[in-house]
Amino acid sequence: MSILKGKTAVVTGSTSGIGLACARAFAAAGANIVLNGMGAPTDVEKECSAIESEFAVRAIYSPADMAKPSEIFDLIARVENTFGSVDVLVNNAGIQHVSPVEEFPVERWDAVIAINLSAAFHAIRAAVPGMKKRGWGRIITTASAHSRVASPFKSAYVAAKHGIAGLTKTVALELARSKITCNCISPGYVWTPLVEKQIPNTMKARDMRRDQVIHDVLLAAQPTKEFVTVEQVASLALFLCSQDAAQITGANLSIDGGWTAA
User: Fold this and answer.
1) pLDDT per residue over 192-233, tens digit each?
2) Is 157 considered catalytic here?
3) 1 pLDDT band (50/70/90 cuts)?
4) Per-residue pLDDT tens for 58-102?
5) Catalytic pick among 55, 157, 189, 227
6) Neighbouring-strand partners of residue 33
7) Paired residues of 10 in beta bridges
């Protein structure tokens, strides 16, 4: 399937997890790839090389800090200069902080809002003029089940993800006649290395077995009692890039094992 052949996809927060899965799915569909995020330079270079060798596309890396608007603007400009276009923009970078609201550090609130919400605005703002000029584009943002429901002690994250849902709707309406769609995907708990690493500490803190932590803590809110996989999220993102999804815009698509069905 080469639905993105000749196009370029920028995926923020893509050196691991959902972002990397999206990048690989887009590369498999023919797109040149721009990775962004944290990671050792040698590891990132290996990912770029693997994408290029497996899928016969170009892959480059940008270390742009998603908390800094000027670096986001420069990222989009660099990609347009290098490849000629930004056709697909996936806003996936995100961080988390958990704390009671009265104790929530102001600097952590600012950081979560900057990376999880404002970065998407800045990237969209920079990418849209080129998309309009070319008459085609796909904007996809990773939201969360927390774009629909709240959990205690996650005030900044929940606020940011609710904001993403609103930003998505607004941008979609503005671009509705420009052949550019704007959607967000709201996963529940996704099985990633980051989640896996949390399990031993949770087992110790709660005096629980591994299976108890997974079933009763991590998957407590997901009726299927199964993790979403990064590949499932990436497949949905790729579908949103297809012609079959051309009339899907302004949508907040849940992929959460039924978490937000109630």
Assistant:
1) 887 888 898 889 889 999 999 999 989 999 999 999 999 999
2) yes
3) low
4) 999 999 999 999 999 999 999 999 999 999 999 999 999 999 999
5) 157
6) 9, 59
7) 34, 89
By CB atoms closer than 10 A (0-12, 13-18, 19+), residue 154 is: buried
What is the spatial distance between Cα 83 and Cα 35, in angstroms, rounded to a whole number?
14
For 18, half-sphere exposure in the C-beta direction (CA atoms, 13 angstrom radius) is: 29
What are the E-state strand segments in 27-122? 32-36, 59-62, 88-91
Four-CA torsion 90, 147, 93, 48, nearest 10 degrees: -50
Report which DSSP code applies to 65: -
Burial class (CB in 10 A: 0-12, 13-18, 19+), 137: buried
Indicate where the chain has its CATH 3.40.50.720 domain(s): 8-190+229-255
State the CATH class of domain 8-190+229-255: alpha beta
Q: Identify the residue whose tokens are 């919400």.
A: 117
Dihedral over Cα of 252, 240, 142, 131: its sign: negative
